[in-house]
Amino acid sequence: FRVGGVRKVEVNVRIVAATNRDLDSVIGNGSFRADLLYRINSFQIHLAPLRERPEDIEPLTNHILKQLAGANPPTIMPDAVAKMAAYSWPGNVRQLRNCLERAILLSNEGRITSNELPPEVARSTNGAAPFIGGFSTAPFSAGQVSSVGGDTGNLSGSSSLRDVEKQQIISALEQTGWHRGKAAQMLGISPSTLYRRLRDYNLEQRLR
Fold first, then answer.
1. Looking at the predicted structure, is the pLDDT value of residue 100 above 90?
2. pTM of structure
């Protein structure tokens, strides 16, 4: 019904709603109506915060840079990517976009280094080695990586990025007794991200 109307008006709409609140909590304290949630919540998608997806920082950064700078965006340097992956991003993608807008304005010679990042990002460190472009920036030797399923632990120059990533995951798991939580902490990623990688490489059956 329209406001003040007496005739029913048929509509055909699709509602897409988003929130950063804990719905169970806001329903429990009465600040959100439970009956409204039950009407609109036919399918729910949970998107993890950016701090739990450090492996997404670099592809998101490249995508946003193309949006902001057009066909010739500045190149994001490894030191900047490492700092960004270590930062917690309480403002999620909006904050990342604002960070890159600033970096573009301050960039020199088509490059963005950690010097162009906001101070809170430039000084960030989480004490762990973040995943950059699919694998961690922490150094490790071939001797630390054992073979699994016939794969060798030799990091040759011809190894693909997937091989390097798999070998480093195996190295972390071997050093932690195949404990997912400890290995994820060593790699600087969330346990859920590590589990997705393990499924990709058919390694989840060896988890503790």
1. yes
2. 0.51
